[in-house]
Each structure stands twice: as structure tokens, then as C-alpha cells.
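TL;DR need C-alpha cells for one chain.
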Amino acid sequence: MTTMHAVVRQVGCDHLLVCNCETNQEVIVYTDRACCFRPCDHVCICFNGAMTMSIPPQITAESIKKM
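>> reply
TL;DR here they are.
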């Protein structure tokens, strides 16, 4: 399991656009809990480590917690 600390930039119905705090890279995060978050929330995302090569990259969250 891989973790990412990020800041939420945008919220969609099934995904978040976040900025990875470590790399400053934007990432799309697919989650069925997207509606629980708001822009500027700091989050910790657990995912399986797989990230697409698309721009921006995409991951599927196993879990997301507000920090």
C-alpha cells in the first residue's frame, strides 16, 4: 500500500483533483467518497501504488482521510 499526502483542488461526483504535497504534481483520485471533501482539504490517500501515465496521472483510492 502506498500513501500520498495531498491538498484537494477540485471535487467531482466520483473523483478529486489533488496536488501531491511531496511532488507538487496534480493527480486525479477516483473514490466513491468524493462528496465528503472540499477544496483546500489536506488529505492522506492510500492506494495500491499503480498510477496511470496520463496527464494528469490517475489513481484509485483504497481509503482517504482528512488530516
